[in-house]
Amino acid sequence: MYFILCIGGRRIFMANSEMILRLLTDLKIEQQALREQLEKMQAALTILEEKLAVTKQRAYSGRPTSFRDWRASTQKNS
Q1: Which superkingdom, per the lineage (predicted)?
Q2: Sign of the torsion angle spanned by Cα atoms 63, 68, 74, 78
Q3: Can you give the residue ranges of every domain in the chain?
């Protein structure tokens, strides 16, 4: 049994085994690209989580986190 694969308007005849090998190769390439994309997303998420943790620590410290907050707190204390 043969498959007919159309690439760029050309017809390519392939045997079952050739077609399966080609599809497996394409899937492996796509899987690697997706894995790399996932790793980048996980790294970005880790960075965001660390920034959020730092922001929360500042908020819980009782100290003003912005100039506006600092000014408001000093005026209340005066």
Answers
A1: Bacteria
A2: negative
A3: 2-63
The alpha carbon of 70 is separated from its chain's Cα centroid by a whole number of angstroms, namely 37
- Residue 31, both tokens: 């899987």
What are the residues whose beta carbons fall under 8 Å from the beta carbon of 6, sequence distance 6 or more?
12
Contact at 8 Å (CB) between 14 and 3? yes
Phi, psi of 5 (to 5 degrees): -110, 125
Residue owning tokens 């003003």: 64
pTM score of the predicted model: 0.52
Which residues of the chain are under the pLDDT cut of 70?
1-14, 58-62, 64-65, 77-78
| Chain-centroid distance, C-alpha 8 | 32
Q: Which residues lie closer than 8 Å to 59 by C-beta, 6 or more apart?
A: 65
